[in-house]
Prior knowledge:
Layout (H helix, E strand, L loop, with lengths): L4 H4 L5 E5 L3 H12 L6 E4 L9 E3 L2 E2 L3 E8 L4 E9 L3 H9 L2 E9 L3 H9 L4 E6 L8 E5 L2 H4 L2 E6 L4
Amino acid sequence: MSVKPEEIFRRPIQVGIVVENLQVTLENLENIFGIGPFKVVDYPPQDGEEYLREYQGEKSDFTAKFCFFDLGNIELEIIQPLTGQSIWRDFLDEKGPGIHHLKFNLDRHDELRSYLENKGIKESQKGAAVGQNKGKTWLFYDTTDQIGFDIEVINQIID
Length: 159
């Protein structure tokens, strides 16, 4: 089977925003847009399990606060990086708060990873999915220079 990027990248499932202060951002979203309430979760969860976390190909210990909100046909993810090196902290340090990525579903990671590497696009961060996606892995690719934002993909088939 050959990867079909036109199928994968046609249906984004999430817009990711990186912020310095999640609580202030959520208050502003409620006050300005009237959306909420929001549930904030820690990443990784503090449940004693070890979770895969890599930054630029190396094991990492980054932590963050996440908030997910259903906007109807797409999910809004708001991320506040807390500790450790991460692409989210890099984004804030370089650009400040803003839209960071679009997320897409795919069956498995291997074919897309090879396809993107052949285009000179490297994996920048990955981690174990939690909650309803436990058992899956999310990957970020640094496509900022080529398209202005990063992409994130999550596998739907668990091997």
